[in-house]
Amino acid sequence: MQKLSWWLIVCIFLSAHAQRLAVIGDWGAESPHRPLVAAAMNEQHRQKPLAALLTVGDNFYPRGEPVLRFVQDLPPVRFYPAFGNHDVPALDRQLELFKVERPYYTVRLEHVEVFVLYSEDFSHTQRRWLEAALKASRAPWKIVVLHRPLYSSGLHGGSRSLRQALEPLLTRYQVNLVLAGHEHNYERLEARGIVHIVTGGGGAWLRGFMSVRPQSKVRLSSPNYLILEATAEHLLIVAYNEKNTAIDQVEIKR
């Protein structure tokens, strides 16, 4: 009994001291569930503050022109966005809005290093940059964020060209998690020892699934966003719907 109580105390301590990040994708649309997802994220921030918010692209529909009201509806924390196909026409304006110099970059957030990729033009130059950044990283957790998924059971399916270009780097440099959008649903997959999550239910109109990939573990046509909790030894990813009900979770341990 004493041993169990000690373990519960340790778990509570780790949770209280975990770094919390939010993730949202395909969110900048005037749909009924967009404000509900935003409100749910704000409630999470009130209960336990978020350190930052990551996006997986398609930040504003239909042609990327920023809508400040959509940004202001979300928790008042620093944004680290990826950029999708709908963002391309107004990419310069979004770079200025979010205060990033180019559409691919890396940011270290305590226990986590985030590698944001520009999947709309994944050039040889970007690949060389990514390999150098991954090689230099000493973060306990390496997370790749991009718009187009490498694996997906959704309408578009995973990008074969991105998979061929990226997967050797992801496995070689021990990336722990890949976050993507583009598909307007939620899916968790596992491939080559890496967790892939498609979180495209932040605001755009939802879609279902087509051909189920063998890597697929969980599929839900639901509004969704993610909360990541990271310590030096644990990375917990929980997916929530617009009612703040947990719809999936996975824990990665070192």
Characterise this structure.
The structure is a single chain. The protein is α/β, with parallel strands linked by helices. It has six helices and 13 strands. The strands form two sheets. Strands 4-5-6-7-9-8-10 form a seven-stranded mixed sheet, covered by helices on one side. A six-stranded mixed sheet has the order 3-2-1-11-12-13, with no helix packed on it. The longest helix has 15 residues. The protein is globular and about 40 Å long. The two termini are 27 Å apart.
Question: Which tags fit this structure?
Answer:
about 250 residues; alpha/beta; 7-stranded mixed β-sheet; 6-stranded mixed β-sheet; globular
How is the secondary structure organized here?
Blueprint: H1 2-16, E1 19-24, H2 34-47, E2 52-55, H3 68-72, E3 79-81, H4 91-98, E4 105-109, E5 112-116, H5 124-136, E6 141-145, H6 160-172, E7 177-180, E8 186-191, E9 194-199, E10 216-220, E11 225-230, E12 234-240, E13 246-253
Parallel strand pairs: 1-2, 2-3, 5-6, 6-7, 7-9
Antiparallel strand pairs: 1-11, 4-5, 8-9, 8-10, 11-12, 12-13
